[in-house]
């Protein structure tokens, strides 16, 4: 008793209590011994019966993240009091996980006695609340204490957005006028019909452009232009149209990608009306598509960085509401594209207009519109061929331009490509004629190294600039792909067969050890689908870039039947959904860099069964590749 009293008198906050109270406390203490490596408390699981005062030995306390990594590791020794904050401020649940690292002895004070002291002595309770306040100043502690498992903020409108078609939306009749109509008369027509957009027709009554309130402001009023001139002189284009059978989300994404504020709506071959972006967005309040609009309005790199950092939360919401991973990929891609375009435009504004027409294209997963959060920059620049005396000037501009774009994207969160597939690499910023030679040499040489480069650069997509340059490159590729290419397909097949589905002989999920977990690499599990679909797309000269879109095009050509396409699309986007959920959880819950490792033990029984079936499906398609492209069932 005397020893306990003497011990307590040296322990904060018990040394704040009167001697007679301290004597009573010492009498209430229970001595408990723990052997080495005993797990005493589990975060957010163990209900605290009271508080522990370490007499001898050592406590290790920490937070586990979802990957079972120890975070904010601390060691506590004789005189440390654990459990006070948990009892007072965390619904009696242990805030952290606690392990006895040595043979440890503690004095245990029951919860009701501890609370009685807190009620009676202000200094005593303030010791714990002040300690908690200091800890909450640590962002990481605050993050894990709050445990953000669900998110009340909803970025999502009704699920109808993803199933509702354009034909169900009320759209306007087309108001139009001939391109020879004077500007002032065009404005009168707009006022008469109470529209903010009028479409312009040529001599054959074909719609060739449009004029909006903004067009009149920017092209006429601001320039003090002649209002009697033909409206064809000041109209905007190109015309962007969408089918009545398209979904609402497709229409909005198309508007963001093309920068148009109005879509013509087509039923078959006939234009039946038009719809504005504002009209569609007004029906989708708080949707991800409104978020994209806010990205477009961002005015600084820091603001774009904050926008990108909030995307995982949105993705968690979308997937949690059952939105298909294919749609989620489109949303992520559109946000990433919007950010990249904003960066490109800001660099051009700083450097001045480019000395030549060019295309900024994206490659790899970004090129396929299959971006995740474990992503880096894959991009390149093609510029038009110029006379000899201008070549160096043009090249110097675009290399400097590419470097500034890449640095800003890296700051926002799109890290530099470790393989160097970036426009700032002089190898990947060249003239159109040089790019044609690149593709030609890769296809002619056809060794494993060049085949990898060809595969990466086949998954290329226009992002910004002169679309005609990209079209010319694809026309060139279309001609080249008609030549005999057995060697390149052989090496592509060998590359595609490197990644085997992670199944054991007994058809269980094969894992490897990473840290304290047994995991499999979900990216490598998806790669065979990407590779095999790309191979068939190349063979049949299909220039769709997205894996799902390629599969649909291959079905139309009769390469795969409906059942095969359904199996592959379902498999691919099931894996994509798991991958996105895992990465979003790592970013949001664990505050760690996302990776592609999945712990099967964290999956539901249904998910595990689905994975095994998917891996069998992939294995079957790989057998088909072996036969068709290598003529060797065992190769």
What are the main properties of this structure?
Beta Polymerase, domain 2, 4 domains, Jelly Rolls, four-stranded antiparallel β-sheet, 24 helices, 21 strands, CBS-domain, 635 residues
What's the overall geometry? globular
CATH superfamily of the largest domain: Beta Polymerase, domain 2
Number of strands: 21
DSSP helical segment count? 24
Largest sheet: 4 strands, antiparallel
The CATH topology label of the largest domain is: Beta Polymerase, domain 2
Q: Class of the largest domain in CATH?
A: Alpha Beta
Residue windows where pLDDT falls under 50 for at least 5 positions: 148-159
Describe the overall structure:
It is a single chain. The protein is an alpha+beta fold. The chain folds into 4 domains: 1-144, Jelly Rolls; 166-284, CBS-domain (Roll), CATH 3.10.580; 287-477, Beta Polymerase, domain 2 (2-Layer Sandwich); 484-634, Four Helix Bundle (Hemerythrin (Met), subunit A) (Up-down Bundle). It is 49% helix and 16% strand. The chain contains 24 helices and 21 strands. It has a 4-stranded antiparallel beta sheet. A 4-stranded antiparallel beta sheet has the order 2-7-4-5, covered by helices on one side. Strands 17-16-15-18 form a 4-stranded mixed beta sheet, sandwiched between helices. Helix 13 packs across helix 23, helix 17 packs parallel to helix 19 (467-480) and helix 20 (486-496) packs antiparallel against helix 21 (522-539). The protein starts with a helix and ends in a 5-residue tail after the last helix. Mean pLDDT is 88; it is low at 148-159.
């Amino acid at each position: 008793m005397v020893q306990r009293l003497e011990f307590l008198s040296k322990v904060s906050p018990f040394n704040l209590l009167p001697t007679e109270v301290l004597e009573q406390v010492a009498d209430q203490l229970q001595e408990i011994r723990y052997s080495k490596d005993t797990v005493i408390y589990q975060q957010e699981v163990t209900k605290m019966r009271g508080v522990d005062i370490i007499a001898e030995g050592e406590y290790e306390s920490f937070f586990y993240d979802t990957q079972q990594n120890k975070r904010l590791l601390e060691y506590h020794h004789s005189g440390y009091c654990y459990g006070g904050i948990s009892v007072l401020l965390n619904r009696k649940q242990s805030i952290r996980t606690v392990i006895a690292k040595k043979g440890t002895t503690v004095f245990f004070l029951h919860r009701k006695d501890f609370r009685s002291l807190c009620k009676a002595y202000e200094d005593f309770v303030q010791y714990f609340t002040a300690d908690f306040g200091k800890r909450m100043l640590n962002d990481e502690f605050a993050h894990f204490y709050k445990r953000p498992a669900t998110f009340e903020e909803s970025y999502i409108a009704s699920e109808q957005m993803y199933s509702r078609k354009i034909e169900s939306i009320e759209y306007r009749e087309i108001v139009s006028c001939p391109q020879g109509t004077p500007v002032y008369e065009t404005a009168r027509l707009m006022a008469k019909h109470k529209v903010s957009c009028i479409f312009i027709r040529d001599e054959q009554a074909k719609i060739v452009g449009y004029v909006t309130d903004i067009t009149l402001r920017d092209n006429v009023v601001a320039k003090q232009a002649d209002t009697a001139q033909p409206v064809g002189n000041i109209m905007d284009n190109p015309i962007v149209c969408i089918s009545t059978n398209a979904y609402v989300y497709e229409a909005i994404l198309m508007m963001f990608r093309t920068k148009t504020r109005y879509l013509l709506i087509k039923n078959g071959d006939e234009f039946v009306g038009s719809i504005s972006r504002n009209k569609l967005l007004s029906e989708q309040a708080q949707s991800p598509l409104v978020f994209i609009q806010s990205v477009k309005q961002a005015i600084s790199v820091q603001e774009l960085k904050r926008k990108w950092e909030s995307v995982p939360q949105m993705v968690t919401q979308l997937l949690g509401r059952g939105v298909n991973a294919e749609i989620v990929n489109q949303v992520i891609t559109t946000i990433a594209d919007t950010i990249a375009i904003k960066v490109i435009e800001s660099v051009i504004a700083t450097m001045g207009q480019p000395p030549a027409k060019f295309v900024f294209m994206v490659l790899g997963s970004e090129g396929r519109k299959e971006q995740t959060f474990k992503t880096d920059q894959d991009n390149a620049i093609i510029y038009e061929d110029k006379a000899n005396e201008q070549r160096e000037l043009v090249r110097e501009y675009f290399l400097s331009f590419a470097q500034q774009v890449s640095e800003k994207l890296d700051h926002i969160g799109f890290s530099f490509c470790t393989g160097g597939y970036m426009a700032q690499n002089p190898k990947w910023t060249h003239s159109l004629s040089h790019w044609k030679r690149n593709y030609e040499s890769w296809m002619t040489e056809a060794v494993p190294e060049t085949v990898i480069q060809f595969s990466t650069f086949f998954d290329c997509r226009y992002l910004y600039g002169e679309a005609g340059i990209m079209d010319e490159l694809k026309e060139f590729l279309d001609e080249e792909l008609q030549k005999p290419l057995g060697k390149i397909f052989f090496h592509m097949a060998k590359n595609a067969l490197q990644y085997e589905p992670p199944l054991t002989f007994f058809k269980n999920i094969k894992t490897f050890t990473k840290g304290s977990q047994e995991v499999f690499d979900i990216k490598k599990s998806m790669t065979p689908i990407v590779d095999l679909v790309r191979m068939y797309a190349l063979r049949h000269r299909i220039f769709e870039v997205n894996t799902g879109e390629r599969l649909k095009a291959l079905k139309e050509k009769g390469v795969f039947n409906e059942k095969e396409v359904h199996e592959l699309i379902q498999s691919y986007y099931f894996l994509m959904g798991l991958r996105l959920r895992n990465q979003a959880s790592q970013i949001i819950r664990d505050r760690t860099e996302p990776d592609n490792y999945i712990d099967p033990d964290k999956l539901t029984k249904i998910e595990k069964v689905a994975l095994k079936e998917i891996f069998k499906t992939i294995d079957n398609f790989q057998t088909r590749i072996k036969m068709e492209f290598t003529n060797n069932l065992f190769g």
